Recover the amino acids of this structure.
């Protein structure tokens, strides 16, 4: 396994739209293993392939306290959203140190394959539901800060660019 480099906002590659996975092979399973290792190392609850510059519809997540319940979503589609929505604080491994409120459906049903191509439907609520919606946005090239006001977003952009300059 290997740690992957996570793209940081406002990297333009975070806005690429992912295409469906068509081949369920060892290469895909290696990518899934590397993404899980990268997510756990970064102490994140979810990671989309887009964030590691692979533009395929693939997401990994683990919202368990014990960090031992990995979920792999290949070609995920949300089949149902709850009417009830709630605003909660979100963060993102691609926007380190920034947390802000985003409104999401409280529960969703998602149909997706696992890394072996087995399709199943999962129901998610609470943090897991938020995570599924957040990660699936990444696959569409959308970062959570795009839900915030232009003023806030510009402040975040400036802060990120400054931090990246200092790191370089
Ligand atoms: Ni994210």
């Amino acid at each position: 396994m290997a740690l992957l480099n996570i793209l940081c906002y406002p990297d333009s590659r975070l806005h690429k739209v992912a295409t469906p996975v068509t081949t369920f092979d060892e290469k895909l399973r290696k990518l899934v293993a590397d993404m899980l290792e990268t997510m756990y190392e970064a102490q994140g609850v979810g990671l989309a392939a887009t964030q590691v510059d692979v533009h395929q519809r693939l997401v990994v997540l683990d919202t368990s306290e014990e960090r031992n319940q990995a979920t792999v979503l290949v070609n995920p589609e949300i089949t149902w959203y709850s009417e009830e929505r709630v605003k909660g604080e979100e963060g993102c491994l691609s926007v380190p140190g920034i947390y802000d409120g985003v409104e999401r459906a409280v529960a969703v049903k998602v149909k997706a394959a696992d890394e072996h191509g087995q399709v199943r439907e999962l129901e998610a609520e609470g943090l897991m539901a938020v995570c599924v919606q957040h990660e699936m946005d990444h696959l569409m090239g959308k970062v959570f800060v795009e839900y915030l006001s232009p003023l806030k977003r510009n402040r975040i952009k400036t802060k990120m660019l400054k931090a990246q300059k200092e790191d370089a």
About this structure: Residues 150-167 form the longest helix (18 residues). Residues 92-94, 134, 138 surround nickel (II) ion (CB under 6 Å).
